[in-house]
Amino acid sequence: MKEEVKEILSHPRSQTEEVQALQDTIYVIGGKWKLPIINSICNGNKRFREIERSIPGITTRMLSRELKDMEMNGLIKRTVYDSSPVLVEYESTEYCHSFGDIILQMIKWGKAHRKKIKAGK
């Protein structure tokens, strides 16, 4: 990965284009809840209550709103099964998987950061 970073940084870049790309990314996956929701779904939680229980502090209303937004942006797929009672499941899309490596790197960085901060106290 370091070689890729060196390659990117060695060429003239468009600040405007990069800022727009960063803002687009933050718009789609930013906020307090989207990444934990994606992580929950990718860890096998498919039903609304399973996802809700796996994320401490999220409200039902917030989860509902975020799931709708994520579905609109193509990150998750919502499937309604015609049964009694009606069964609704969520799953991550291939498009969502396209930034899976980024999420794993963020988790890795977050763990290292927590260790660094705790060690400094």
Automatic annotation (TrEMBL):
Q: Specify the HTH hxlR-type domain's residue ranges.
A: 19-118
**Signal sequence region:** none
The record's InterPro entries line, in alphabetical order, gives: HTH_HxlR, WH-like_DNA-bd_sf, WH_DNA-bd_sf
Q: Which PROSITE patterns match?
A: HTH_HXLR
Keywords noted in UniProt: DNA-binding, Transcription, Transcription regulation
Q: GO MF annotations for this entry?
A: DNA binding
Q: What's the protein name?
A: Transcriptional regulator
Task: Tell me what organism the protein belongs to.
Answer: Taibaiella soli
Q: Which taxonomic lineage does the organism of this UniProt entry have?
A: Bacteria, Pseudomonadati, Bacteroidota, Chitinophagia, Chitinophagales
